[in-house]
Amino acid sequence: MMKKLALVLVLGMSAMACKAQVRVQTAKAPEPAPAAEPAPEPVAKVGEQLTLPDQIEFEFNEARIKQTPKTLASLEQLADTMKKNPKITKLRVEGHTDNVGKDKLNLKLSKARADAVAKWLAEHEVASSRIVTFGFGAKRPLVSNDSADHRAQNRRTEYYVDELEGKRVDEPQKVAGATASGGKTAN
Predict the structure, then answer these.
(1) Rounded Cα distance, 88 and 165, in Å
(2) CA distance 141 to 160
(3) CATH topology classification for 49-182
(4) Residue 44 neighbours by CB under 8 Å, 6+ apart
(5) Mean pLDDT by 10 residues, the chain (187 residues)
(6) What's the CA gap between 177 and 137, in Å, rounded?
(7) pTM as predicted
(8) Domain spans in the chain, listed from the N-terminal domain onward
(9) Coil, helix or strand for 105?
């Protein structure tokens, strides 16, 4: 019996001597990932052409902008680009026509269409001082004027970054032979 008592005593003492410590740690929830910031607007370069999803349409042989969903969406995108990029201090709007009609009338029409786009932008919170317009008539076709489809491609307006943070692009050949106005639009 003594052996049993000694064994119980030894076991009891060793149990008391060895205090088992159990720590329960609660894992912290991982920190949420920081909200992704919107991608920065692409940085425009002087002389760079701004492209739109669709061409701006005009009434036949007039400078009046057609109020179609595609045209209005393109104009809105152009205005948004200008509003989001205040570093673009001058946007060059170029008007072009096909070769149907007299050269002098096409030159006047292309200028009037560029002015119409500038006027629309000014009416939609883009300062007119940030816009310059040129009309080239049929002098700069994209493709030959040998078919109705090709003539349609040549009737267009184009948009170029003409000045960034007040620094003008030095490309006088780009505007040679054009009818121009700067900073103000015709009413």
Answers:
(1) 6
(2) 17
(3) 60s Ribosomal Protein L30; Chain: A; (3.30.1330)
(4) 50, 85, 87, 88, 161, 164
(5) 48 49 53 54 71 93 96 97 96 97 97 98 97 97 96 96 86 40 39
(6) 10
(7) 0.69
(8) 49-182
(9) helix
